[in-house]
Amino acid sequence: NPNTLPVREWILDKFKLLASVDLAVEAFLPQVGVQASLLFLQKKTEVERQLAQNGTEDYEVFMAIAEKLGKDRRGNPIYLRDEDGAELLFSTETEY
């Protein structure tokens, strides 16, 4: 979207983009059907900002897509099931 270009430029000027995770459309359903992403940012130091202005900034960015969010398009929870179809429940004390 060209309307968001100033915002993207401001973010990249002030912050180092560590990761971008695209969320599934179900993230805000059933209330709102929007495509959303999570950005993980780290504030740049003055030296890093100068390197970026000189065009010598180079770093890796982690990118991922969240395919399942634990609910369907109607907002109903999706449970992990065993081979027999029974819901698998975890204690908060269980290590995953």
Give a written overview of the molecule.
The chain is of the alpha+beta class and 96 residues long. The chain has one domain (1-96). 19% of the residues lie in helices and 20% in strands. It has 2 helices and 3 strands, in the order H-E-E-H-E. The chain has helices at 5-14, 46-53; strands at 15-22, 37-43, 62-65. The longest helix is centred in the N-terminal third of the chain and has 10 residues, at 5-14. Keywords: Methyltransferase, Transferase. InterPro entries: SAM-dependent_MTases_sf (IPR029063), Type-I_RE_MTase_Subunit (IPR052916). This is N-6 DNA methylase. One of its GO terms (molecular function) is methyltransferase activity.
